[in-house]
């Protein structure tokens, strides 16, 4: 457990550094994902064994046909020739069938493994705490789910079957060689020593190369995702050329890493082929010598030559598969690091139910709370705060004062470093996630719109809501007149990021969503965008409707919002420096009064 949180703390800050035991963790993950399909894997092993045996029997039958069948046939007895030949045909046919079913089954198992891995990763990424997402770039997570996934897919569906079949054939042939003639077997296996050496050296280098390649391509993807995500800023500040130069750099690193990997593959391929051919020559030399000395028959020598071919033959494919395997395992390691990360905010195992809500929302308390982000710098020094049920509190203060941090504790995106946040007396750490999400809803600044219709976007507030309830919510916040003017009314597609909606309309959709969700506590990070006067009035009216009958904390950027609050909290450098009704604070002539004065002036 502490192991896991270590991992989460480490990975976002040093995203390219993986823990030393990552290879074992990746293997454990793979076994875990494969477990439900164990019968399939067992059948596959049997098929592969049959395939291997088929491969091993073939040359032995040929030896028999040559050494016994042909001399017997010359003497007039063809049976000794026909039987091994018929058996050879049968074995070839059976091997073909095993090959077919093996390939199909490997493909199916690989696809299922991919689907479970993808699902596990996506599910996990969604559930990882806001803390993780705030530290990790989304590009990196996109790269885990695209290019890394693809690498695993390429290996599993393309090369795994070659590898399995190749290894099965090699294993069965090795056993047969020993049984048939141990002297010749030793000659064949001698080639194994340099082969093992080449494999180990190349494996180490390739592992490094592939990790480097995965990191390099992740950087390219991060850059692309960032550029597209901030395309408006990119174009406004003419960042195109800078971005071009950066991507050229990143591509160069990717190219160098790939080139190193290719060099290694070439070296490994040439080495293994050379060893295969030398083994063939050695078998011919020793075998020929034994044949001359009458210690071996020509048929057996032919069989041995065929075995060497069949033994070293799959190596070509294994070399290819080996590179893909290295690439896939580097990708799997990166994915494992994400899947192994444990959210810092954990759901309680035996949650405390919240008491029944009274009309007017819930009481919120910050009891001796202090908070710092992972870096340990205190953002909120110890403080106490009580918000009675039904109160609307406006949080104001300079940028960086800690307003968003305070509401992140209330929504339990983070847990306080010290003290407790309570809702109707229950520590938020004791509340089940579902109860908490039902009780507290946060409307964010960006008023994020998902793909789909306007109705879909409102319904996010309460997924089971009827069309009538969705329409009522839109009515309540004054959104209906806008929707009527849209081409398909409630069914209008909001397109990417609400491209068809103005910022004011997006806020109203968010309000409708919150209205439909009907939380006990509403947290609102008000958009800073300046709205024109009619829109501002509209948003203000909608806000008043949404706030009714619940507790609310609003990060207020607009004077009009502060005016409808029951209470204003002024924050400065993480501290609550003023706390009273708007009127009292204006009268006291403190910070808020100054801020208010400046607002008034800007409106004049
Ligand atoms: N995820 C984070 N990790 C580390 N530090 C953070 C993180 N988020 C905010 N901070 C720091 O915490 C302090 C308070 O930030 P916060 O976002 O709460 O301020 P704010 O009052 O909401 O500002 P604004 O009005 O500009 O949104 C700032 O110094 C900020 O740099």
Automatic annotation (TrEMBL):
Residues 42-327 form the ABC transmembrane type-1 domain. The chain crosses the membrane at residues 41-62, 82-102, 154-178, 184-202, 282-308. Residues 364-598 form the ABC transporter domain. InterPro entries: AAA+_ATPase, ABC1_TM_dom, ABC1_TM_sf, ABC_transporter-like_ATP-bd, ABC_transporter-like_CS, P-loop_NTPase, Type_1_exporter. GO terms for molecular function: ABC-type oligopeptide transporter activity; ATP binding; ATP hydrolysis activity. GO terms for cellular component: plasma membrane. Keywords: ATP-binding, Cell membrane, Membrane, Nucleotide-binding, Transmembrane, Transmembrane helix, Transport. Its main location: membrane. It is a multi-pass membrane protein. Belongs to the ABC transporter superfamily. Lipid exporter (TC 3.A.1.106) family. This is Putative ABC transporter. The lineage of its organism: Bacteria, Bacillati, Actinomycetota, Actinomycetes, Micrococcales.
